[in-house]
Amino acid sequence: GENVEQHPSTLSVQEGDSAVIKCTYSDSASNYFPWYKQELGKGPQLIIDIRSNVGEKKDQRIAVTLNKTAKHFSLHITETQPEDSAVYFCAVSGSARQLTFGSGTQLTVLP
Amino acid sequence: KAGVTQTPRYLIKTRGQQVTLSCSPISGHRSVSWYQQTPGQGLQFLFEYFSETQRNKGNFPGRFSGRQFSNSRSEMNVSTLELGDSALYLCASSLGANEKLLFGSGTQLSVL
Lengths: 111, 112
Fold this sequence. Notes:
heterodimer; A: mainly beta; 6-stranded mixed beta sheet; 11 strands; globular; B: mainly beta; 7-stranded mixed beta sheet
């Protein structure tokens, strides 16, 4: 089945700096790549997603890049703010017709 | 538009009991998926329902089952609870299959 690896598991950045989280996947048929943000006591919140026919997508301070050849994709957060502190999950959907999630990254933005 | 609603929010059960969790999807969403979240295993797919039919199932024992009603509301049931079933159970709804899943806040199940 699909295998998704996410790095790093923890990330601390200074407020205003950028944060980058990376994921690799195994199934070359995967075609949908969402990112979720989960705050304490809440369910995962969809923050951005990309399909396999697009290399990059941006939404204000958040961007996702996809390299299909290398089978990896990344989340970029610019000008980080304390409210960006949360656990971020990448996910992949493909031939298995289900979302397979990465193990999560605890992002801490230091004031 | 109201989000995905899961009830109850918290649940405490003992080993051997059974439990039923409920999920009301976003209005107009016909696909409902269930996930189990634990610190050790992360987010794992349980099953997905669309128009009252189970379209996909994850790698969980038969003690885990679900159903979807004609109004798209869904329930999942776990029978003969084990300590390892303690987890946050998340429901997500979407218009289509496995894209733009929107999650509820989950049901935190503790098995004693």
